[in-house]
Amino acid sequence: MRSKEIEEKSQNLKLTKIQREILIGTLLGDGHLETKNQGRTYRLKIEHSYNQKDYIQWLYKLFQDWVRTPPVIRSRSVTFRTETKEYKRVGFATLSSGSLRFYAQQFYQNGKKVVPKLIQHWLSPRALAVWYMDDGSIKSKQHKTVLLNTHSFS
Q: pLDDT tens digit string along 26-49?
């Protein structure tokens, strides 16, 4: 696709209700928005461990009209002392769009991700489920306590 076609497509992108709920959930989790033009437009970037490839594929299908290329697998080798371990990640990024600006303004303050003041209006069961799939876990098989990682939030 040529850059003019991409620009026209990205200007016409609008989030569906389901995409908005999923966006809220993934922004509370590991998803993030990035800009390359001082905040005029943003793109959603999602990346997880390769073990979560089915989850990434599900997210990709839901945002497919926003994405030019399918999920990409990336590998990284890390050496600690004498042991080298390979980590595989899979993810994708959407096209940049002004439609994501509102969410960037709500979820980022001074370059740091925050919980929006109006989150209670946007936190649907679907958004909560996506947040859990994105950045949640079960404490243990014995306790079955559900944890949502909020380490970076105040």
A: 999 999 999 999 899 999 999 999
